[in-house]
Specification:
Elements (H helix, E strand, L loop, with lengths): L10 H16 L3 H10 L12 E6 L5 E4 L2 E4 L8 E6 L3 E6 L2 E7 L7 E2 L2 H10 L17 H14 L1 H17 L2 H12 L7 H9 L18 H13 L1
Parallel strand pairs: 3-7
Antiparallel strand pairs: 1-4, 2-3, 4-5, 5-6
Helix pairs in contact: 3-5, 4-5, 4-6, 5-6, 5-7, 6-7
Length: 236
C-alpha cells in the first residue's frame, strides 16, 4: 500500500524500506521522545534474554522437534539431550555448554530442515535405510546430484545405485561439494556411464573440470520487425 508493490528483490531491500519508513514516521516525534527519555529509569544491570529455551532429545536418525518442526543434527548426537534457543529468525542448538549449530527457524508446523552432512555417515553405514528415508528429497544438494542418482539407479539397480549415490554424498560432505557438483556436471555431459570411482579420483586430485561454455546472444535489431510490418501492409 505504501510503495505500490510488495515485490522486493531481497530481504535487505525490504529492511531498508522499513528503516526509511520508520525514519519518516518518527521525524515528527522527537519532542515527545525527549519527554519520555526524561521519565525513563536506568537499564537493568543484566540484559534480558531475547530467546526461548527448550530441551530436546535427539532421535535415532539425528533429528529434533522444535515448535512442531523437524531439524537435523549430526547423527553422532543420536540419543543425547540438547538445548534449543529459539530466536526470532534462527534456532541455536547447545550441547555440553557449547553452541554446535545455528539453524534457520521454520514457520508453521510439520516442516523440516534436513542437512545431508548431518545424516550421511549413518546412512553410509546403513545404506538400506536410504530407499525409504522420510526426508530423502532433501538429500539432493543440486540438480546434478539428482540426475546422478537417477542414472546410478538405472545403471546398477536400486540397491547398488543407492550405495553409489551415498558415496557421492559422503564425498561432497568430507571433500568439496562444489567440486563434486562441477565434476558431475562435466561427466554427465559426456553422455556415458557414470563411474563414482572416477568422480572420487578427480575430486581428491582437485581436478577442475572445464568451465561451462558461454553462449553469447547478439542484441536483436528491432528495426527488422518494423520492416516486416511494412512488408505485410504492402501485401494487404
Amino acid at each position: 500500500m505504501l510503495r505500490g508493490s510488495r515485490d522486493f528483490l531481497s530481504r535487505p531491500e525490504y529492511e531498508q524500506f522499513l528503516e526509511r519508513m520508520f525514519e519518516q514516521l518518527n521525524a515528527g516525534r522527537q519532542e515527545r521522545l525527549r519527554e519520555e527519555l526524561k521519565a525513563l529509569g536506568r537499564l537493568p544491570a543484566r540484559r534480558h534474554e531475547d530467546f526461548r529455551e527448550v530441551e530436546c532429545r535427539v532421535g535415532v536418525f539425528g533429528t529434533i522437534r522444535v515448535l512442531k518442526n523437524t531439524y537435523s543434527l549430526h547423527s553422532r548426537l543420536a540419543g543425547e539431550c540438547v538445548k534449543a534457543r529459539i530466536h526470532a529468525e534462527q534456532i541455536e542448538v547447545w550441547y555440553a555448554q557449547r553452541k554446535i549449530e545455528v539453524l534457520p527457524r521454520l514457520r508453521g508446523e510439520n516442516g523440516h530442515w534436513i542437512t545431508y552432512r548431518h545424516v550421511i555417515d549413518r546412512l553410509v553405514r546403513k545404506p538400506g535405510a536410504f530407499e525409504n528415508y522420510r526426508y530423502k528429497d532433501d538429500l539432493f544438494p543440486t540438480s546434478q546430484f539428482r540426475i546422478a542418482y537417477d542414472l546410478l539407479r538405472e545403471q546398477a539397480g536400486p540397491k547398488q545405485g543407492n550405495k553409489q549415490y551415498l558415496k557421492l554424498l559422503e564425498l561432497a560432505a568430507h571433500e568439496n561439494e562444489t567440486l563434486v557438483n562441477e565434476t558431475l556436471r562435466f561427466l554427465l555431459s559426456q553422455a556415458g556411464p557414470l563411474d563414482v570411482g572416477v568422480v572420487e579420483e578427480r575430486v581428491k586430485a582437485r581436478l577442475r573440470p572445464p568451465a561451462v561454455t558461454e553462449v553469447e546472444i547478439a542484441p536483436v535489431d528491432l528495426r527488422m520487425y518494423d520492416q516486416l510490418l511494412e512488408y505485410g501492409e504492402v501485401l494487404v
